[in-house]
Amino acid sequence: MEHTIQDRYAPIGVFDSGVGGLTVAREIMRQIPNEHIVYFGDTARVPYGSKSKETVTKYSEQIVRFLQTQHVKAIVVACNTASACALDTIEKDVDIPIIGVVKPGAKAAVSATHNGKIGVIGTSATIDSHIYSDYIKELNSSAKVLGKACPLFVPLVEEGLWEDPVTDEIATRYLSELIDVGIDTLILGCTHYPLIRKAIARIVGDGVALVNPAYETALELRELLGEHNLLNDRKPELGENRYQFFVSDAAEKFKTFANSIIKYGILTAKTIQIEEY
């Protein structure tokens, strides 16, 4: 598809089941600062991690239709569960570049490991999909991948317990079996987890490299936009509002949480009826 100069200045669509994808949006803001972002958090229907593949796919398709009404030039599925369950389907629906968080994270883990033992933590849906292990095995067939669902991490993060003994306690329980088998690389396979990175690092120790797919996705997105001639080369003007946030529920709560993660001042989050798309 040929892109016009105008497309270059269009926003990037970023979506997640809720607030976790803000860690991806934050990395895009850092790594590609000229870009505009339209973010959608499906706060009415969070969490995705315990839902079926069919449901997650249906939700993702609705969100993609909404983002297309915002004339986005590319879409980032900033949710590991949606990347695992829905990316293959929604890729067929759109003719713009679309990228999930799983492949960039898997690639970075394969580069980082020395002993081939890679741990993945995420929601039950992400871990049950085996998407990380399948993709890692494609890149390195001799890698050993150990997945561990950590369902309590998301509520801990959303309650703001980033530095709290209870988080350390739960992390110790979840991570002990991965430590016991001697992993040297751990993928933070849920976009909430970078917010408790310090706690996770304390438990696994210095010998384990932590891979943050949010960071890797932002780098890969920059490359992808470059290949398609879609990088925004215009420096933002002072006071220009480059970031728009939409949610399906609880806009105030979202805004408070978002402001604790993103230091660029989130002025508003609009609520939309996502079921209408």
The level 1 CATH classification of the largest domain is: Alpha Beta
Per DSSP, the total helix count is 12
**Total discrete domains:** 2
**Proportion of residues in β-strands:** 15-25%
Contiguous uncertain segments of 5+ residues: none
Provide mean pLDDT, rounded: 93
Question: How would you portray this structure in words?
Answer:
This protein folds into two domains: 5-100 and 216-276, Rossmann fold; 103-213, Rossmann fold (3-Layer(aba) Sandwich), CATH 3.40.50.1860. A six-stranded parallel sheet has the order 4-3-1-2-9-10, sandwiched between helices. The longest helix is centred in the first third of the chain and has 17 residues, at 53-69. Helix content is 46%, strand content 16%. The model has no long low-confidence stretch (mean pLDDT 93). The chain has 277 residues and is α/β, with parallel strands linked by helices. Helix 5 (102-112) crosses helix 7 (131-139), helix 5 crosses helix 11 and helix 9 (165-180) crosses helix 10 (197-204).
Keywords summarizing the entry:
four-stranded parallel sheet; alpha/beta; 12 helices; about 280 residues; 2 domains; six-stranded parallel sheet; Rossmann fold; single chain
